[in-house]
């Protein structure tokens, strides 16, 4: 639908944008009125207290240490204290009652990685002449993952501290490549609306303009026509997710690769979440469309070894099709009095222990181990998805590719279902725009009875909710529901900052 105003043709999307901007401006101005300003401050103070009180409740059994002890604490006492701290919290995560977060847990693997990390805990790949073995392990991790994603002999990359750093490093590399090789001074990256906020973080850090492209309302994948229309002479990078975090759906990487080739623009594929399932799915009996370096337009891939690679937290890889991109990721300083300085990633010093433990994990599982694990996770995901699709009152967003299933409802506020499952011990992720919840299936959910228990608990709570579908939200979920509707996102930003503040709570 188009509207004509004073001889100017306005598209429906333009009208929606103008209306949203007007609402935000109005809300911002009202917020400055002393009476309403005070009310906003009082409400945000309540939210801040809510977050802090939750931390206090979770840690009430322990005293806080805010000064160094006068005498060092014994080994046995330290181990006892650490074990107590690790058991704080209300979720039974070892039994699969959470979404994502912990992707594999096995006592034997923990013992192995603890020993490996301990052996290498003092090492630092920054000093490659002192610790060449650690550098060898990192190089081997990069090479074997390049091969998993069908890279050729030119393929390369580095390890990073996690998916966010992998994405941030890719954006830094393409900003500098665009500036150094293409003369682009004001670079832009084009990402799906569902792309991870690490791309927004990179844009904020490095002064890059980020353009978000809307999703198809049925498939929840990026609108390719709009992506192509957004391309300009300043475009540094096109991005696709395989899969994305919110919905578990995957963008058409083959088509994005074709756009990259057509306009001579690099293409990054974010495989941080499901890359280490997608890489093994075909061999496990689950065909996939091409999404990696087998496509000629794909120039980089981010993949987290600490998710379905089952390596320790703090490990990921960023891969490139050619060294010319990786060279622009590096930071090099040649004028320092201390000598020539160069580092591959944000960090200078890095943990050799994490590198060694990641390498050991890949060696421990091997190809057959990952194929077996992938089959177990995918079989469980298919079972849960089929059960959910058979239930009235809820729907699944799009077609999940790997392990994430997102749930919505046209009959009631879906946050109520999340809250109800939370009361039964389940921890799911909440989504917004539109509101939804998702469960990320991990190897923990493949344990006998876990998936069936989740389905039965969800079914029972759904039956109760549908008896009174119009009941309003209460508690924390009411806050989530409210924040999703606020036109002024600065207030939502403040709420997020209060949440982070609470993570650093200590008694006054």
Automatic annotation (TrEMBL):
Q: What is its EC number?
A: 4.1.2.27
Listed Pfam families: Pyridoxal_deC
One GO process term, biological-process aspect: sphingolipid catabolic process
Q: Which cofactor does it need?
A: pyridoxal 5'-phosphate
SUPFAM superfamilies attached to this UniProt entry: PLP-dependent transferases
What does the record give as its pathway?
Sphingolipid metabolism; Lipid metabolism; sphingolipid metabolism
UniProtKB keywords = Endoplasmic reticulum, Lipid metabolism, Lyase, Membrane, Pyridoxal phosphate, Sphingolipid metabolism, Transmembrane, Transmembrane helix
Membrane topology note: Single-pass membrane protein
Q: What does the record give under GO molecular function?
A: pyridoxal phosphate binding; sphinganine-1-phosphate aldolase activity
GO cellular-component term (any): endoplasmic reticulum membrane
Keyword Mitochondrion assigned to the entry: answer is: no
Cite the InterPro entries for this sequence: GrpII_AminoAcid_Decarb, PyrdxlP-dep_de-COase, PyrdxlP-dep_Trfase, PyrdxlP-dep_Trfase_major, PyrdxlP-dep_Trfase_small
Using the UniProt record, name the top-level EC class of this enzyme in a single word: lyase
Q: Name the source's superkingdom.
A: Eukaryota
Protein's cellular compartments: Endoplasmic reticulum membrane
Q: Which residues carry this modification: N6-(pyridoxal phosphate)lysine?
A: 307
Q: Which family does it belong to?
A: Belongs to the group II decarboxylase family. Sphingosine-1-phosphate lyase subfamily.
Protein's name according to its UniProt entry? sphinganine-1-phosphate aldolase
Organism of this sequence: Macrosiphum euphorbiae
